[in-house]
Design a protein that fits this description.
With about 270 residues, the protein is an alpha/beta fold. The protein folds into two domains: about 5-235, Rossmann fold (3-Layer(aba) Sandwich), CATH 3.40.50; about 235-265, no CATH class. About 35% of the residues lie in helices and about 20% in strands. It is built from ten helices and nine strands. It has helices at about 45-50, 95-105, 110-120, 140-150, 170-180, 195-200, 215-220, 225-230, 235-240, 255-265; strands spanning about 5-15, 20-30, 35, 60-65, 80, 155-160, 185-190, 200-205, 210-215. The strands form two sheets. The chain has a six-stranded mixed sheet with strand order 5-6-7-3-8-9, sandwiched between helices. α2 packs across α3. It starts with a strand and ends with a helix. InterPro entries: AAA+_ATPase, ABC_transporter-like_ATP-bd, ABC_transporter-like_CS, ABC_transpr_CbiO/EcfA_su, ECF_ABC_transporter_ATP-bd, P-loop_NTPase.
């Protein structure tokens, strides 16, 4: 099918002269699960803005679905979740925020109502739908913002730290929603613990805004030198077994670590 997003020699420089993204060439294939990781200040959030068509690059191009470099022409196919949920919650009630995207795209009322109800149930928003967004807690806002993006069923999700402010219970629900998404998912995060649960490929952004690595989850997340040099820490499960097991055997998830420990106890 080809890339749904293809960036070529992408650079973005802010007005103060700071270069946040530097000469990035990157292709995201249809149906891929990709994690873009980098330390705070590496430029990964700026890269999300540029790939999502919310910020114009200073140089280079981004092509969408092999069709166009105009993000507005495919806006209904791109679901972009920024780090600050307040960017998405601007209506009188949470329900109106969740209904906004489907209404803009002309989705039938029946379909929209069904999607809003399902997302409200999945993300614990059912009792909050008539509440003003400003009265939500940080975690509730995070869940409502994600629901507002998922409500219009975009082909591509570009998610900046969707697990950030939520507790463990809803973190697992969000992980399931993300992994069950039928389209393409690109996760932007400085924390690697959730990456093995949602991604099959990892792109590392260095502290100078360049892509310094692009490979499988195992190859990247077990490369301690690579991660340390770029201000990142391997997942906790990798750190727990590092120096004891070979890289090919290091557990990447809690479930894999548990299985390994149980096997060792026998």
């Amino acid at each position: 099918m080809g890339p749904v997003i293809e960036a070529r020699e992408l650079t973005h420089e802010y007005p103060d002269g700071t270069t946040a993204v530097r000469d990035v060439t990157l292709a995201i294939e249809a149906g891929e699960r990709v994690a873009v990781v980098g330390a705070n200040g590496s430029g990964k959030s700026t890269l999300q803005l540029v790939l999502g068509g919310l910020v114009e690059p200073s140089a280079g191009t981004v092509e969408y679905f092999g069709e166009t470099t105009d993000a507005e022409a495919v806006r209904d196919r791109l679901g972009v979740l920024l780090q600050d949920p307040n960017d998405y919650l601007f209506n009188t009630t949470v329900r109106e925020d969740l209904e906004y995207g489907p209404a803009q795209l002309g989705m039938s009322r029946e379909t929209a109502d069904r999607r809003v109800a399902a997302l409200a149930d999945e993300l614990g928003l059912r009792g909050l739908l008539e509440r003003p967004p400003f009265r939500l807690s940080g975690g509730e806002k995070q869940r409502a913002a994600l629901a507002s993006v998922l409500a219009f069923d975009p082909d591509v999700l570009l998610l900046d730290e969707p697990f950030g402010a939520v507790d463990a219970h809803y973190r697992e629900r969000i992980r399931k929603l993300v992994t069950d998404h039928e389209g393409t998912v690109v996760l932007f995060t400085p924390s690697l613990d959730a990456v093995p649960e949602v991604a099959e490929r990892v792109v590392v952004v260095g502290q100078d805004g360049t892509v310094v690595a692009d490979g499988s989850v195992r190859d990247v997340l077990t490369d301690g030198s690579l991660l340390t040099e770029n201000g990142l820490r391997p997942p906790a499960t990798v750190r727990l077994f590092e120096g004891i097991l070979d890289a090919a055997e290091l557990p990447l998830t809690v479930a894999a670590a548990r299985r390994r420990l149980l096997r060792e106890e026998r």
